[in-house]
Specification:
By secondary structure, the chain is mostly beta strands. The protein folds into three domains: 24-118, Immunoglobulin-like, CATH 2.60.40; 131-227, Immunoglobulin-like; 235-334, Cadherins (Immunoglobulin-like). The protein has five helices and 24 strands. The strands form seven sheets. Strands 16, 19, 22, 23 and 24 form a five-stranded mixed β-sheet that branches. Strands 1-7-6-3 form a four-stranded mixed β-sheet. The termini are far apart. The protein binds 2-acetamido-2-deoxy-beta-D-glucopyranose. 2-acetamido-2-deoxy-beta-D-glucopyranose binds next to helix 2.
């Protein structure tokens, strides 16, 4: 059967070839019209009356056998045989047209009929992914670019011409750069540095709008996870730690505790406490590396010293530093944050006064 159709079609072309084309007519119709919609009055268009259509056994010949358009001889008109989807028929090819022949017998005549299928904006843009995720270090510099995939619109012409917007624009702006191949590179560009301690997760909305009438839009959410860098030093929770130490305090007594916190996360926020004092102090006191407790190791003798200064460092695993001023010292004790340039760590100075009834004697402050 198929070979018969092939033979039939070939034979018909051979016959047609011997007759000249009598005329040509073009129509254009929008895609997606319901079955049975009028394409045009071919009787009127070609100046063939209804009788001639009948006597000539007028018929429409579509080369590829797809019957999108049919002839109603009684009314002299061309009708759609089915709903025509331009995207299925032509994809991105423009113009999209059906090339048909109107064939008549007695005498044999044929007419070229072109039916152009006009795009309607029946396809919204669509993004290749349901959502976009980025993990961006808070150390990313201003101007850093992050590639975004373009949306796809199956329509053609202005119906597929997309414009984009990105919101909010606090940290990122959208950049579209036309390429030589006509494509556009879409990127989001960092315009304000990220700060994980301020905002760990960012949610942005990328919108694509086509140029159709009415416009169709599509959106995709962009999730940005801000990765930590060790940009925060540990900070002691108090600027001044005060402690007094009664004479004859037993060994292993916890005198006080120091505590620092770090706004970073993970290992960048793990704090270890150290004593970096010199001399006697190291024999008398220790700091618990994890808890920050200051513990008496030996026995403090008021006669030897009425005041001790302990240098205590809080270090995170990145060893960040900052500075502070040494405040005026309280009568009994004082503590302060001080920058240690060598170790690049936070230091708290804890001054311990060995308490004695003769208060005046304990007021011989020793400064660093
Ligand atoms: C088409 O045109 C022919 C000739 O002008 C006319 O006789 C016929 O009524 C028309 N058909 C329709 C459906 O308008």
């Amino acid at each position: 059967m198929a070979s018969f159709v092939m033979w039939h079609a070939t034979a018909l072309f051979m016959i047609l070839f011997r007759y000249s084309v009598r005329g040509h007519i073009s129509y254009s119709i929008p895609e997606e019209m319901p079955k049975g919609s009028i394409v045009g009055n071919i009787s009127q268009g070609l100046g063939l009356d209804l009788k001639r259509l009948k006597s000539g056994k007028a018929r429409i010949f579509a080369g590829d056998n797809t019957e999108f358009v049919g002839l109603n001889k009684e009314r002299g008109i061309l009708l759609t045989e089915e709903k025509i989807d331009r995207e299925a028929l032509c994809a991105k090819t423009t113009p999209c047209a059906l090339h048909l022949q109107l064939i008549l017998e007695n005498p044999m005549e044929w007419y070229d009929v072109t039916v152009e299928i006009i795009d309607i904006n029946d396809n919204a843009p669509s993004f290749p992914k349901g959502e976009i995720t980025f993990e961006i270090s808070e150390s990313a510099v201003i101007g850093a670019r992050f590639m975004l995939e373009n949306a796809i619109d199956l329509d053609v012409g202005s119906n597929s011409h997309l414009s984009y917007s990105l919101k909010p624009t606090d940290n990122f702006v959208l950049s579209l750069q036309s390429q030589t191949d006509g494509d556009r590179n879409m990127e989001m560009v960092l315009q304000k540095v990220l700060d994980r301690e301020n905002k760990e997760q960012l949610s942005l909305l990328l919108t694509a709008v086509d140029g159709g009438e009415p416009q169709l839009t599509s959106t995709v959410r962009i999730h940005v996870t801000v990765l930590d860098i060790n940009d925060n030093p540990p900070v002691f929770n108090q600027r001044v730690y005060k402690a007094t130490l009664p004479e004859n305090t037993p060994k292993d007594t916890v005198i006080t505790s120091v505590s620092a916190s770090d706004a970073d996360e993970g290992s960048n926020a793990i704090i270890t406490y150290y004593m970096s004092s010199t001399g006697d102090v190291n024999d008398l006191f220790m700091v618990d590396a994890r808890s920050g407790k200051i513990i008496l190791k030996g026995s403090a003798d008021f006669e030897k010293a009425s005041r001790y200064q302990l240098n205590i460092q809080a270090r995170d695993q990145g060893g960040l530093s900052d500075s502070c001023k040494l405040p005026w010292v309280a009568l009994y004790s004082y503590a302060c944050l001080k920058r240690d340039l060598k170790t690049s760590a936070y230091i708290v100075l804890l001054s311990l006064s060995v308490w004695n009834t003769e208060i005046r004697r304990s007021s011989q402050n020793v400064f660093l």
